[in-house]
Amino acid sequence: MAGFLSVLRRLYLSVYNWAVFVGWLQVLVLAVKTLKESGHEQVYSAVERPLQLSQTAAVLEIIHGLVGLVRSPITATLPQISSRLYLTWGILYSFPETQNHILVSSLVISWSITEIIRYSFFGMKEALGFAPSWLLWLRYSTFLVLYPTGITSEVGLIYIALPYIKNSEKYCIRMPNKWNFSFDYYYAAILALGIYVPGSPHMYGYMLAQRKRALSKSKRE
Amino acid sequence: MKVTVVSRGGREVIKGGFDLNDSATVTDLQEAIHKRTKKFYPSRQRLTLPIPPGSKDRPIVLHSKKSLKEYSDGNSGNLTVVFKDLGPQVSYRTLFFCEYLGPLLLYPVFYFFPDVYCFFGYSVSSVTHHPVQTYALYYWCFHYFKRIMETFFIHRFSHATSPISNVFRNCAYYWTFGSYIAYYVNHPLYTPVSDCQMKIGFGFGMLCQVSNLYCHIILRNLRGPDGNGGYQIPRGFLFNIVTCANYTTEIYQWLGFNIATQTIAGYVFLVVATSIMSNWALIKHRRLRKLFDGKEGRPKYPRRWVILPPFF
């Protein structure tokens, strides 16, 4: 019984990882193609569907961690997934004025390259039991460039969205109400920007440590 | 007795170690270390017995009141202790006082200086407070005043100190939540609940606060005046049915406040505080059950709710 469940788990995870891999591959191909043919203003409309699908699918990974299907701690993946979902739905989808900015291109290209490498890495591990060392190297090295470009794009887009957020009053709850609660999406966005200040060096440092561990471990093997 | 002091990496922390009297206590060792190293005062030191490599047991911490002889069985004359620096320490009294002073002082600011709401874009013409807001002020300030009094006159702490980083963390927690709740309860556009609901909320809350005080008094009497009590099975009053009755009464007390004031901010605080206290309660409950297992003449820990009957 246990053996059957473990095979089922491997099968499910393989399918999941390769499916999301295909999604992100689509994003990258469409983004580059549109950039070359039509210019950066059109990139968002070209990639919108695969981007939303692939990024939202990542919510499943939180469930995988909680249920114990995978070993990774959710404390590491939660901040990353939150910021991705915030940008995808809370900024880009909600405020179309941001969609034709050039930072959208740098954002989706940074994200898609990172995710293509990451999902193929896990996909191979689940399906074949191992991943080639060049893929391991890619997984723990591309972030050195893609984290800064991705984070800059995220912060930039939030900043650009600010005036539109303030004027639209979207997602705001105002007093008075029965539950004496208020929420201001504009100030929440400013708070989010603030979190990037300590958050980014923390995440980058975490990845550097992971890199050291992973690459030295593979050298020893 | 020759005592060698090493770091967790195996390096000698005190070159040459110490030559202490055979009847020396751990306190004497701590003072000797302090004298030699100047900056590591005793409450900063964590001394443990070395664990054999590969063993998964938790290291045995040396207790300040015990004599060194008790830890060096079999090899009397020689003792090796592992030293860890806990970092700058602050007494629990100081820590609690700082934490509680914030809410005590910040909350009334929102009540007595409604001009602060101008910062948030609200025009404040006149200061009329609903009765609920006034009672909430009294209730809140009484609560934190009570906590400060308990810190100085009731609580007996097993560990005298806490790392200084906890001051920032804990103060951030209390002061931020205190301000967050105070902002909404004293808001110019605050919507009060019914008079009946308010009375039920505050009445129930006060009952729980008084019960909470009584729980603290019971806990205090479990420990001797020199803090020597160690762990005992709590008995009497609600402790007969709940291990951490003090946390239970605290949680229900906040529930009373929230029923009376009805703010999301207050309920968020309740949920967070409950989860933190439940965590502590689980640890304490497990520790007491492990300690009082009924073997070797020790009493067996009775079946009790952990913290929140009827939930767990």
Automatic annotation (TrEMBL), chain A:
| Gene Ontology BP term (one) | sphingolipid biosynthetic process
What EC designation does it have?
Answer: 4.2.1.134
Residue intervals passing through the bilayer = 12-32, 102-122, 143-165, 185-209
Pfam families named among the record's database cross-references: PTPLA
Q: Which reaction does it catalyse?
A: a very-long-chain (3R)-3-hydroxyacyl-CoA = a very-long-chain (2E)-enoyl-CoA + H2O
Top enzyme class, one word, equals lyase
Report how it sits in the membrane: Multi-pass membrane protein
Pathway listed: Lipid metabolism; fatty acid biosynthesis
Which InterPro entries has this protein been placed in?
A: Tyr_Pase-like_PTPLA
Alphabetically ordered keywords of this record: Endoplasmic reticulum, Fatty acid biosynthesis, Fatty acid metabolism, Lipid biosynthesis, Lipid metabolism, Lyase, Membrane, Transmembrane, Transmembrane helix
Q: Which GO terms describe its molecular function?
A: very-long-chain (3R)-3-hydroxyacyl-CoA dehydratase activity
Q: What does this protein do?
A: Catalyzes the third of the four reactions of the long-chain fatty acids elongation cycle. This endoplasmic reticulum-bound enzymatic process, allows the addition of two carbons to the chain of long- and very long-chain fatty acids/VLCFAs per cycle. This enzyme catalyzes the dehydration of the 3-hydroxyacyl-CoA intermediate into trans-2,3-enoyl-CoA, within each cycle of fatty acid elongation. Thereby, it participates to the production of VLCFAs of different chain lengths that are involved in multiple biological processes as precursors of membrane lipids and lipid mediators.
Similarity annotation? Belongs to the very long-chain fatty acids dehydratase HACD family.
Official protein name in the record: Very-long-chain (3R)-3-hydroxyacyl-CoA dehydratase
Q: Which organism is it from?
A: Punica granatum
TrEMBL record, chain B:
Q: Does the keyword Lipid metabolism apply?
A: yes
Q: Where are the transmembrane segments?
A: 264-283
Chief location: membrane
Q: Name one GO cellular component term.
A: membrane
Q: Name the InterPro entries for this protein.
A: 3-oxo-5_a-steroid_4-DH_C, SRD5A/TECR
Membrane-protein topology: Multi-pass membrane protein
Residue span(s) of domain 3-oxo-5-alpha-steroid 4-dehydrogenase C-terminal = 161-311
The molecular function terms in GO held by this entry are: oxidoreductase activity, acting on the CH-CH group of donors
- Keywords attached to this entry: Lipid biosynthesis, Lipid metabolism, Membrane, Oxidoreductase, Transmembrane, Transmembrane helix
Query: What highest taxon heads this organism's lineage?
Result: Eukaryota
Entry's localization field:
Membrane
Q: Name one GO biological process term.
A: very long-chain fatty acid biosynthetic process
Tell me the Pfam families matching this sequence: Steroid_dh
Write out the similarity annotation: Belongs to the steroid 5-alpha reductase family.
Protein name (record): Very-long-chain enoyl-CoA reductase-like
Organism for this UniProt entry: Punica granatum
